[in-house]
Amino acid sequence: MSADADFAKVVAALTDPRPAYVSYGERLHGHAFIDFDHTTHLVARTSDGHIVHGKEVVETDSGSVNHQPFAARCYRAISETRMQRDGRDVIDFHIEHLDRSGCGKGSDFSNLYADPHSMHPIEVDGHSTDDKADAHLAEMFGDIDGHAVMTNFRVDVDGSGPVFWLHIHVMDEFTEYRFSATDPGR
Q1: Closest to 159 measured CA to CA, from 32, 36, 28, 37
Q2: Which domain holds residue 107?
Q3: pTM for this one?
Q4: Are 97 and 109 in contact (CB under 8 A)?
Q5: Per-residue pLDDT for the chain (186 aa), expressed as one digit of tens each?
Q6: Is residue 185 assigned to a domain?
């Protein structure tokens, strides 16, 4: 198969039809000038990602299950390689951001790792470096009831040059997923 055809299967796994509602826990913790640790439980409609019960720890487009940091439709595969990663067989897709409506100015994601049998994503990551900082992004995925879902998102930034003192570590974890046809909060 081609990298484009295989990558299309990964995109399909991330955008497959899901039951009407999903409930999940979110824990955001780390260090960005001060230590922080916040936990919440949410219920969202899967059709549009609207939070129907609970409140996101950080209200951004990247916190809920429908608004993940990695928007698969905004990327294409340049190449793929079969390899071992953390002791398991994976497909490593080298990816690039597409310049299309709704995809923003670009992203620092450069590699997506997928299970070669299910074509479900395992992790997408990337790096960005300039004269002031080195940043690493990683979004990990799990398989819940046959659906590929985000399990955590990590950001690490280390300063250099005039901001050598800058060290930021943020982890946003998503757990306790439950899909249902009806609103579980009613």
Answers
A1: 32
A2: 3-180
A3: 0.87
A4: yes
A5: 689 999 999 999 998 888 999 999 999 999 988 999 999 999 989 888 888 898 877 665 444 555 678 888 889 999 999 999 999 999 999 999 998 887 877 667 999 999 999 999 999 999 988 888 889 999 999 999 999 999 999 999 998 888 888 899 999 999 999 999 999 876
A6: no
Work out whether the CA dihedral 182, 183, 184, 186 comes out positive or negative: negative
Report helix, strand and coil shares of the chain as percent, to nearest 5.
Answer: 10, 55, 35
Residue 22's nearest CA partner among 123, 144, 154 is 144
Amino acid at 20: A
Q: What is the CATH number of the domain that holds 109?
A: 2.50.20
Into how many domains does the chain fold? 1
Does residue 67 belong to any structural domain of this protein? yes
Backbone angles phi, psi at 181, to 5 degrees: -80, -25
Residue linked to tokens 């609103």: 183
Q: Is residue 186 part of a domain?
A: no
Report d(CA 74, CA 84) in Å as an integer: 26
C-alpha–C-alpha distance, residues 33 and 14, integer Å: 34
Nearest to 83 by CA among 113, 119, 125, 111: 113
Tell me the C-alpha distance between 114 and 144, whole Å.
Answer: 15
